[in-house]
């Protein structure tokens, strides 16, 4: 591995791996690789203000502090009659005098005295002295002047929404690093906030390498395959909310590869390539990657996805993180999900938890030997007892993209895990909700 003079932070790869007693680039565990990546990556620091609709899916760049109480006043949660809880009848129904009506969005100056009430609509400000609302459907003999309130239907304080119960002035409404979801932009609107500071989108360039690859629209010559990795990568990066640049297929030619890597580096925060990083690859991809920066070539204890390059390359005074993913279509997706995804989220400044693994019962035996992490494609369903069960999707070759397409989850067989028998518990990662 080539090392560069460490700049400020983060340190060069060599510095990170020299602190690991058991670092072996030819036998790295998934978690070791994830740790090294995490230590080496730094977030992109650049903030822009966008209208809250445009902020959907973006990463919040600052804590959002509530400037108001939400709701701004105590108000009614129901259509009914507002009264003093202490006046509620205990045994027999009581007739109350109706002294006014409170509508949502209008001021109401009625102030109730004993055995008086105000007809009130949902969302209307609670009249002075009232702390309780009895829903309309519990009342009887209602006229404009009086209403009968039965005993035991509500307790004092019921059906009143309190001022500031959602948010109070000065409270952190949303934390920096949050990826904004529909509820979050709604919450911003409830605070009267029209624009939000978000991290600028991460710029990610990707291309495929290999002489056998053909792009769509080209004839499929003997021995060639259509380039599918650029499409799965497009899908995954798009869903992650990156600005993406597709550089197409780059032939296995040193000059073309160098030009592609340089251009990618000068135009993006991160570069994702597929192919050309296997141990026996007789091509130039690895040479050019190594020549342009601080890049480690790993053999990871995982299946699929053993070979991977990771590092940072430099060109024209710019630098970019590099993820050299393997070529096999399933391996590309697995390495993207388990290495690149978390790293890109971290670069985006997102406060994103690691992917959640859920327990499920394997319906079938799965061959597995300890010492590597295996990612099988599975179909998860809920059985009659409400329990999650999973079966593998047929052939699991790393080139069989159909296995990913038919699956609704990935079965993660951990590093130490052994042979799985029918009825054993396994961990699954659901695709739904994943990018
Ligand atoms: P490599 O890692 O370059 O040795 O590629 C491993 C396998 O993945 C080979 O069978 C390649 O043909 C296939 N492959 C590499 N890149 C792509 C791609 N972009 N689309 C589909 N298959 C690919
Ligand atoms: Mg290749």
Automatic annotation (TrEMBL):
Its EC number is 2.10.1.1. Its cofactor is Mg(2+). It is an enzyme of class 2 (transferase). Residues 205-346 form the MoaB/Mog domain. Keywords: Magnesium, Metal-binding, Molybdenum, Molybdenum cofactor biosynthesis, Transferase. InterPro entries: MoaB/Mog-like_dom_sf, MoaB/Mog_dom, MoeA-like, MoeA_C_domain_IV, MoeA_C_domain_IV_sf, MoeA_linker/N, MoeA_linker/N_sf. The keyword Disulfide bond does not apply. It catalyses: adenylyl-molybdopterin + molybdate = Mo-molybdopterin + AMP + H(+). One of its GO terms (cellular component) is cytosol. Belongs to the MoeA family. This is Molybdopterin molybdenumtransferase.
């Amino acid at each position: 591995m080539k090392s560069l003079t460490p700049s400020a932070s983060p340190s060069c790869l060599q510095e990170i791996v020299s602190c690991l007693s058991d670092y072996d680039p030819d036998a790295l565990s998934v978690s070791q690789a994830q740790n090294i990546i995490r230590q080496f990556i730094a977030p992109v620091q650049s903030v822009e203000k966008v209208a809250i609709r445009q902020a959907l899916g973006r990463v919040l760049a600052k804590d959002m502090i509530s400037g108001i109480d939400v709701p701004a006043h105590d108000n009614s949660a129901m259509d009914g009659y507002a009264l003093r809880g202490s006046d509620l009848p205990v045994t027999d129904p009581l007739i109350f005098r109706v002294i006014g009506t409170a509508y949502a969005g209008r001021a109401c100056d009625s102030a109730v005295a004993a055995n008086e009430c105000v007809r009130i609509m949902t969302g209307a400000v609670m009249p002075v002295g009232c702390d309780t609302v009895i829903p309309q459907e519990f009342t009887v003999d209602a006229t404009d002047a009086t209403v009968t309130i039965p005993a035991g239907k509500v307790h004092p304080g019921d059906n009143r929404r309190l001022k500031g119960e959602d948010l109070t002035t000065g409270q952190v409404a949303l934390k920096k690093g949050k990826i904004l979801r529909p509820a979050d932009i709604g919450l911003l609107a409830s605070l009267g906030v029209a624009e939000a500071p978000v991290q600028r989108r991460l710029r990610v360039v990707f291309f495929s390498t290999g002489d056998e690859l053909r792009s769509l629209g080209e004839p499929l010559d003997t021995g060639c395959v259509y380039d599918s990795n650029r499409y799965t990568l497009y899908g995954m990066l798009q869903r992650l909310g990156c600005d993406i640049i597709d550089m197409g297929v780059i032939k296995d030619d040193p000059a073309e590869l160098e030009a592609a890597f340089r251009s990618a580096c000068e135009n993006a925060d991160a570069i994702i390539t597929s192919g050309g990083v296997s141990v026996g690859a007789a091509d130039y991809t690895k040479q050019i990657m190594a020549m342009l920066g601080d890049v480690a070539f790993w053999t990871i204890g995982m299946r699929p996805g053993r070979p991977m390059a990771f590092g940072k390359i430099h060109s024209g005074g710019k630098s970019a993180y590099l993820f050299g993913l393997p070529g096999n279509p399933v391996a590309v997706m697995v390495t993207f999900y388990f290495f690149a995804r978390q790293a890109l989220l971290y670069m985006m400044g997102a406060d994103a938890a690691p992917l959640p693994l859920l327990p499920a019962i394997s319906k079938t035996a799965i061959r597995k030997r300890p010492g590597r992490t295996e990612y099988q494609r599975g179909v998860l369903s809920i059985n009659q007892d409400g329990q999650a069960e999973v079966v593998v999707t047929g052939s699991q070759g790393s080139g069989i993209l159909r296995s990913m397409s038919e699956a609704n989850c990935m079965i993660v067989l951990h590093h130490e895990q052994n042979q799985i028998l029918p009825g054993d518990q396994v961990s699954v990662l659901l695709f739904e909700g994943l990018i």
